[in-house]
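Notes from the pairing session

We agreed to fold both candidates in a single pass and log them together. This is the raw record for the first candidate, unedited. Please don't reformat it; downstream parsing expects exactly this layout.

Candidate A
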Amino acid sequence: MVYFIQDTLFVALSIFLLFFLLGYMALRHRFPKGSPLLCALILLFSSAGLSDLAFRFSPNPVVVLYADSLNLFCFVFSLAILSHFSLVHFSKNPIWTHSKFYLILYLPALIIAVLHTLSPLMISGIVSGPIGFQLSYNWGYWLIVIYAALFGLHSVLLNLIIIVKNPVAAEKNHSVFLLLVLLLSLYFYNSSLILPFLYRMVNFSSPLPTTFAILILTYTFIRYHYFTLEFLEHPGSTE
C-alpha cells in the first residue's frame, strides 16, 4: 500500500506539471517553436508513469496488457523525441525539422508500437506469478531492445560530443540536461520493459525517474527556454 500511495503521488505530480507548463505558456502567450514536442514528451512520461502504476497494481490481466502496450508506446515515442532534440542541437540544421525526417524518426516507433499492440510477435500472453503478473515474450521483442540501443546510444553520443567540444556554455548546459533526462528515461524503461524481457522477471520500476525528468524539463524550459527547437536552432536568440 505504501508503494501504491507513493507512486500515485509521483504520477499526480507529473500530470500537475504538464498542466502547469501549459498554463504557463498560455499566460505568457508564448508557445515557442517545438513546444508541442516538449509537451508531448511530458505527456508521454506522465502516461508511462500511469501505465506502470496500472501494470504493477491492477488485479486484471487485460488492464495489465493494455498498460504494457501504453508503456511501450510512450517509450518508443519519447526516445524518438529525445533523438529529435539531440539531432537538431547537434547539427543546427533545420533540415531535421522537415516532414520526411519526422517520418525517419517517428515511423519506426509507430511500427514497433503497432506490432506490439496488435500482433503476437512480441507478447504472446500473460501469466500470474507469486509477486505479480509476468508477460510471455516472443522473439520479436528483440526489435524493442535494438531500437532502444540504437536511438538511446546515438542520442547519448551526440550530447557527449556537444559537452566535450562545443565552446558555448548554454549549449553545453542544454546537453547536460538533455542527457540527464535521457538517462532517467532509459533507467525507467529498462526496469519496466527491457530487463523483465531479458531476465524473465516481473516489472520492478517506479514512476520516480520519469517524474524527475518532467521536473527537469519544466524547470529548464521556464528558466532557460531549453527543449524547444527555437533554442536548439538559434541558442543565442533566447538568451
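Candidate B (folded immediately after A)
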Amino acid sequence: MTSFVYGQNQAFVVTEREAQEIFDVTQAGRFAIGLGLNSNVPLGSPFSISGGAKTGPFRYSLINSAQVELAYSISSAFELSIAGGIEQYASRFDLDTNPTDNTYDFVRNTIRNFPLLLIARIGFAGNRYWRPEIEAAAGLSFSKVSIAQDTSTDPPKVNSTKALRGHLSVGAGIPWTKHLSLHTSIGYQYQKIGSKQYALTGGSSKVDQKNLSGLFVKGLVRFQF
C-alpha cells in the first residue's frame, strides 16, 4: 500500500506500507484436523443414593473430554466433520463417617465415554477478526459405568452401554493464520446412559443412574490444509 507523508520541507514524501492480510476461517474444498477440549455441566448430579438411612445426590462434578476432529469444507460457510474422543467423569457419596478415626464408608462412581460424532458447522459473515457459527452434532457414545463401595470387598459393579449423543451450540470462529483457526462454542448437550439401579453391599441402599445431559462448552484449535 502506498501512502503520502507531508514532510517538514513542505513536500509530499512517498512511503511503502505493507497491507494487513485478511485470513478466512474456512476455505471451500479444504480438509482440516483439530484438537478440542470440552466440558459438560450436567443439570443436576447424574447419580444419587436411595433406599437407605442416608439418601441424596452424589457430589457435583463436571464432565471433561478431549477429542480429535477431521473436517471437510463443502463451502466457505458450511462444513462436515467426524469427531472422536474420550470423556471422563467421577464423583462420590459418603454413606457414613466415623469421627473417632476419621474413616469413611463411601461410594465412588466413574464414567468413561468414547463418543463418535458427525458434526455440521455453519459460519456466517462476520469481520476480519471473527465470524459467528452454529454447530450441530449427533452420534453414539460408548460408555462404561463403574460403581465401587469403599468398605466392600466385592469387585466394582460395571455397566457398559451404547447410546445416543448430540449437541447444539453457538459460538465463534477466529482465524489466527492462513491455516490455523480457533473455534469456541456453548450450547446444550444430550448424553444418554440409561436409567439403572445398582444394589450396594451390606444394606438396602441403591445407586440410581440417569442421563448426563447439560450445558456444553467447547474449544477447538484447527489446522486447515
